[in-house]
Design goal:
six-stranded parallel beta sheet, about 15% strand, alpha/beta, 14 helices
């Protein structure tokens, strides 16, 4: 079997990292991989060694010339399946190129943004299968007019072994200027409105008074950077909430967190939450999008309805007050990361879909 992957992302995180892991898993199973990516795409340095790479210009939604470039590659490589992993023009133009080349096409959908009802049925007719990383995303697509029969859930994976590291409290406390007796919770998300930082900031003043050892680190970057940085300087946060910026060493940072809080209003799945579970760190998260599929209440974390600040407050208070619960939730989270959310499970899920198209 030969699979041609199309990934338009320039940087190796999120979906692009999933594609890199997928090529390694498929290669171990005897599948030939071909990757089409941007000329400066970081993914080309992370895929399986045997992957054939075509690094080409990919200029976004108005790059109509991408259709001809993709047709040329598809006809040269003669894959059994074309798998499109990203948007930025690659989804529509890749689907058209596969259709004109007569090759079955699969699209991965990683976000839960609704699409116009007039457009979705036309666009998704290009694909024989649509892989969604959560059932919640599938429900959004069905509501937009996509046929349920083409939708297949395959959850994103986490490289659990690379996150299964011991805590290094001395380094952690020095790195973030924390006291020795700290109890630190973290938020790991883009600094955008839909991630719900404001809900956490609303409940923190009371919690910081009740728990004098509690500290909060807000990781990430985005358009709310300056607004949040100004907010956490207010007196009610007692200097115990800090903006920690974007980190490329989260697997070293996360094991030192007491918990990860994710009060998002919308979320396709939440890979950072899988990473927290792999580290043995419990998650307190809103029941948005696909989150309830990976954060199981009282199993690897605690969940609450979107915007329910009262319950968010109670969950943080409960977990900070009960270290034994924290240890139990963390242990069960690590077990989930190594089974249901493993790279092998993700690879097998994708492979079954390819096989259903080649051998219906």
């Amino acid at each position: 079997m030969k699979v041609l992957h199309i990934e338009a992302g320039r940087f190796l995180y999120g979906g692009a990292q999933q594609v890199a892991w997928l090529t390694h898993g498929l290669a171990r199973r005897g599948v030939q991989n071909v990757l089409v990516c941007p000329e400066d795409g970081e993914i080309q340095h992370a895929v399986a060694e045997s992957t054939v790479i075509h690094a080409i210009p990919m200029r976004g939604d108005l790059d109509f010339g991408l259709i001809a470039r993709l047709i040329k590659i598809i006809r040269t490589e003669s894959p059994d399946v074309v798998h499109i992993h990203s948007r930025r023009g690659a989804d529509v133009f890749g689907g058209i190129a596969a259709r004109l080349s007569g090759v079955p096409c699969v699209l991965s959908r990683r976000v839960d943004n609704p699409e116009p009802r007039w457009l979705a049925p036309l666009k998704y007719r290009l694909y024989q299968r649509v892989i969604v990383i959560s059932e919640a995303i599938g429900r959004v697509l069905v509501a937009c007019g996509v046929k349920p029969s083409v939708i297949n859930p395959v959850r994103s994976a986490v490289d659990a072994t690379s996150y299964d590291l011991p805590a290094d409290n001395a380094w952690f406390q020095k790195e973030f200027s924390l006291p020795i007796d700290e109890v630190t919770i973290g938020v790991v998300a883009q600094l955008i409105p839909r991630k719900g930082h404001r809900y956490l900031l609303e409940v923190l003043p009371e919690l910081l008074i009740k728990h004098p050892h509690l500290h909060v680190l807000i990781f990430g970057q985005g358009p709310l950077q300056s607004e949040l940085a100004e907010a956490v300087m207010r007196p009610e946060y007692h200097g115990r909430v800090q903006m920690a910026g974007f980190r490329d060493d989260l697997r070293r940072v996360m094991p030192n967190l007491y918990a990860v809080v994710h009060p998002a209003e919308k979320e396709g799945l939440g890979v950072a939450l899988l990473q927290a579970s792999a580290c043995g760190v419990p998650v307190i998260a809103a029941e948005a999008g696909g989150i309830p599929e990976i954060v199981l209440h009282e199993q690897n974390g605690l969940t609450f309805e979107v915007g329910d600040v009262k319950t968010l407050n109670q969950h943080i208070d409960l977990l900070v007050s009960d270290p034994a619960m924290r240890e139990r939730l963390g242990k069960e989270g690590r077990e989930l990361a190594n089974t249901a959310f493993s790279i092998d499970a993700m690879v097998e899920g994708n492979l079954r879909i390819y096989q259903s198209l080649i051998n219906p």
